[in-house]
């Protein structure tokens, strides 16, 4: 989306690998009149609809089931924040207010989201069972969605994550594309990754339901790759009901400090909540859905972020949930910002894998510079 003036949404700064684009000083003195839910109000001129709503006292949240206005990505990717403005649905997080704009919050929103083209994937994600990996051909087809609630400076998929200009798709359109790709690549596994797929709840549930409707054979596997930070029991139940069969949550540390370092989340309370949700997701899926939903856990590792003691703590916590759970320790290195961090060597990754094995985990893979090793 192109605008004449900076509106301070900061989506450009988030998306810039060099932190190079600085927003202009926002004029908070000039005001414009707008109408929100029929009420005439004055708000600063060069701000987003989201910020205008916040100025007016609306509370905002990053969790989908809270009673507040939901803004999880704030960069225009997830389409969760659509509002009606002058009769058109726009993303409130990146759309400026305009003089006399009429904003309605109660209208039924279209359900859509920016999604990449499906691709064949020869390795799959962390939620792909180890025994189907390494066949030398595609093992699943995957799409990646725009928008994430985290701000990992080393993000390994920043081009998709911060995409905001591409045409969004309905869940049905995306499911059809994935189903066609399944045939093209002759696979049974269909995956969605990101960005963060869970942000737009309605979109994701309808996507899985439609995929299941088109692919109603027993071989079809529907795989969610997720940071698991906004999942809870209710949401997981809905996903399973919608057809999800495989899940790959990431555990970005045992400690909140580590999570904050990896994800760029600076609010400690929020970081604790996000990290706790990701651990609880693993526990709940194992306890409630063992045998029905396959779970593979990803642990991003780089000595820059965590030491071996914390890795061992992660291993011990996972053993207490299920010693047989599949765990993939990922050689985590920067692709976006923080380019000074070195990629872990093969030796470092084998040592990291050994730490997890020593904790008693039975199924540990390591992603290394020469490919996956183990279990
Ligand atoms: S919060 Fe506005 S598009 Fe994601």
Describe the model.
The structure is a single chain. By secondary structure, this protein is an alpha/beta fold. The chain folds into 2 domains: 11-104, Beta-grasp domain (Ubiquitin-like (UB roll), Roll), CATH 3.10.20; 119-373, Aldolase class I (TIM Barrel). Helices cover 30% and strands 20% of the residues. The protein is built from 10 helices and 16 strands. The strands form 3 sheets. Strands 8-9-10-11-12-13-14-15-16 form a 9-stranded mixed sheet, covered by helices on one side. A 5-stranded mixed sheet has the order 2-1-7-5-6, covered by helices on one side. Strand 10 (189-194), helix 5 (201-214) and strand 11 form a beta-alpha-beta unit. Helix 9 (308-321) packs across helix 10 (346-358). The longest helix has 22 residues, at 268-289. The protein is globular and about 65 Å long. The model has no long low-confidence stretch (mean pLDDT 92). Bound molecules: FE2/S2 (inorganic) cluster. FE2/S2 (inorganic) cluster (FES) binds at residues 71-74, 76-81, 91, 93, 147. FE2/S2 (inorganic) cluster binds next to loops.
């Amino acid at each position: 989306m192109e605008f004449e003036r900076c509106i301070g949404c900061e989506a450009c700064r988030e998306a810039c690998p060099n932190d190079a684009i600085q927003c202009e000083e926002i004029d908070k003195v000039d005001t414009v009149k707008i109408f929100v839910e029929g009420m005439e109000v004055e708000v600063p001129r060069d701000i987003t609809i989201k910020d205008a709503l916040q100025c007016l006292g609306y509370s905002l949240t990053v969790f989908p089931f809270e009673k507040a206005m939901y803004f999880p990505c704030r960069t225009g990717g997830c389409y969760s924040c659509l509002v009606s403005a002058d009769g058109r649905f726009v993303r409130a997080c990146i759309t400026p207010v305009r003089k006399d704009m009429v904003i309605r919050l109660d209208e039924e929103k279209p359900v859509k989201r920016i999604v990449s083209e499906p691709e064949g994937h020869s390795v799959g994600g962390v939620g792909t069972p180890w025994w189907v990996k390494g066949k030398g051909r595609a093992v699943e087809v995957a799409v990646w969605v725009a928008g994430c609630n985290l701000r990992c400076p080393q993000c390994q998929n920043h081009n998709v994550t911060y995409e905001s200009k591409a045409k969004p798709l309905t869940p049905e359109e995306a499911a059809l594309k994935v189903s066609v790709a399944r045939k093209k690549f002759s696979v049974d596994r269909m995956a969605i990754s990101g960005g963060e797929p869970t942000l737009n709840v309605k979109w994701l549930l309808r996507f899985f339901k439609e995929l299941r409707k088109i692919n109603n054979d027993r071989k079809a596997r529907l795989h969610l790759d997720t940071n698991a930070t906004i999942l809870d029991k209710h949401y997981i139940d809905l996903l399973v009901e919608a057809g999800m069969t495989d899940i790959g949550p990431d555990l970005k540390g045992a400690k909140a400090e580590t999570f904050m370092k990896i994800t760029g989340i600076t609010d400690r309370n929020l970081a604790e909540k996000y990290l706790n949700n990701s651990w609880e997701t693993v526990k709940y899926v194992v306890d409630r859905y063992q045998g029905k939903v396959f779970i593979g856990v990803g642990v991003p590792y780089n000595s820059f972020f965590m030491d071996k003691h914390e890795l061992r703590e992660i291993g011990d916590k996972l053993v207490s949930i299920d010693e047989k759970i599949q765990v993939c320790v990922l050689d985590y290195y920067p692709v976006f910002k923080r380019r000074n961090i070195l990629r872990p060597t093969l030796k470092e990754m084998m040592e990291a894998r050994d730490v997890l094995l020593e904790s008693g985990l039975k199924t540990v893979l390591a992603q290394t510079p020469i490919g996956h090793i183990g279990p």
